[in-house]
Amino acid sequence: MQPMSRRSALVLGGVGAAGVLVGATGLITGWTSGPAPANGVDFVEPKALRSAGGTLQTRLTAAAGPALIAGRNATALSYNGGVPGPTLFLQPGDVLRVTLDNQLNATTNLHVHGLHVSPEGNSDNVLLAIEPGTSFDYEYQLPENHPPGVYWYHPHHHGNVADQVFGGLYGAIVVEDTEAIPVSRERVLVVSDITLDAAGQVSGTSQMDRMMGREGAMVLVNGQAGPRVTSESSARERWRVINACTSRYLKLRLDGQSLQLLGIDSGRFQLPHEVEEVVLAPGNRADLLVTMVAGQSVLRTLPVDRGGAGMMGGSAASSRGADLLTLDVVGSTTSSTSLAIPEQAVPRDLRTEAVTGRRELTFAMGMGMGAGMMSFTVDGKQFDPTRVDTVVQAGAIEEWTLTNTSPMDHPVHLHVWPMQIVDPSRNGPPEWQDVVNVPAFSSVTVRIPFEGFTGKTVYHCHILDHEDVGMMGIIEVR
Ligand code: CU
Ligand code: CU
Ligand code: CU
Question: Which one of 40, 162, 349, 399 is CB 3.0 to 4.6 Å from 465, fit for a cystine?
């Protein structure tokens, strides 16, 4: 391991707000001000680990140390030395066994974001704390009818989540289709952001950035800055895109190409439909088909206004735009070889089912302790791991109104059970997501089937800085 300065050791350890306070003009320069990152290198994907015979067994070692980021040797956090960690390919019905080895100097744990698995015991239990120098054996049993799609894993120990994800701890999970979708190639694109100082170490985060939700100076795809993808005219590729950014919203465009959306999160449409752009809040995923048109295109994320204007001296929580990758398509577009895409099972539609209960959850910001500090709450309370905030009966189908009384957007995530957006303003096919953005000063209504599992887990804002300061509650299904 390379020697680390005391400052970067603190950052990498996820010491939190009290440990690291960096001025806006100090160390947060980003590599963009140092030697240029390696643009235009060939696109790479994280190492693939595939299940066999119904099981995938692996070890993820979380550690601080050298990692290749934007083509240069950085000092970051990683699983097994890679940013991102390996991609886990699973089938419905599989068992996933992961030994998490915590070589960090801070407490961590593991969350399999979006998977419909038990939240108890050594399954997707984010109330566990895996201490430094120890390891833990997780085991996740996917149901036989687990929805195919793109999911991901990341740490979830309250208070350390934003620092650990921002530092480089994340990886993709793909649950394969039972009937393959005919494409010439599949790619996984883990989009993340990070700020590195001139020495290649992860920069600290100011108190203000934590309140607004930190955004990195660089936006990466699979740990690369501006990689180049090459393809052939008329080819149809499947791109699975994960927004693994700590707070940044993505508004993706690939002008000049034909984009179809197969689904968002675990939600799948019966047939893919053409889209011009896709907005992904932190934690969301898009399952895309790209039909290649000859020429050069750039996958971009455009700026997103996520509120906050007028707060705390006029700061706005805008996500800045960035170029993510360059696509070079060779050959002349003459024939289209589009094989038919099998119709997906008609998604369940809870708008036609009876609701067994209704409740409202309020996401708010208020004055907190200390000058300029804000509190982030759900139903007026900050997270308390010893308190159960919401009790739901197993098998219930509930309608939740998610209300945001604050001037910033909050992307609301519920573990284990996906949510169907049922706003009357949205009349299209059923939309199932596990992260639902609730814009500033507004409400979104969802319906949730609390089926398959019981136990305690959490709902929270997926701006991970907000989760860490308490915008999270515990739900128990029993
Ligand atoms: Cu997540
Ligand atoms: Cu939030
Ligand atoms: Cu979570």
Answer: 162
- Looking at the CA of 435, name the nearest ligand: 1
Q: Using alpha carbons only, what angle is made at residue 417 by residues 145 and 54, rounded to the nearest 5 degrees?
A: 35
**Nearest C-alpha neighbor of 312 from the set 256, 264, 374:** 374
User: How large is the average pLDDT for residues 324-341?
Assistant: 79
Q: Give just the sign of the alpha carbon dihedral 273, 275, 279, 282.
A: positive
CA dihedral 62, 66, 69, 73 (to 10 degrees): 180
Would you call 124 helix, strand, or coil by DSSP?
coil
The Å distance, Cα 18 to ligand 1 centre, comes to 24
Q: Is the dihedral of CA 126, 129, 131, 135 positive or negative?
A: negative
Q: What are phi and psi of 210, to 5 degrees?
A: -65, -40
- Nearest ligand to residue 460 Cα: 3
Tens digit of each residue's pLDDT (9 = 90 or more) over 398-411? 999 999 999 999 99
C-alpha torsion angle, residues 192, 194, 200, 205 (rounded to 10):
-160
Per residue in 136-190, pLDDT tens? Answer: 999 999 999 999 999 999 999 999 999 999 999 999 999 999 988 999 999 999 9
DSSP E strand boundaries for 103-176: 111-113, 135-141, 149-154, 171-175
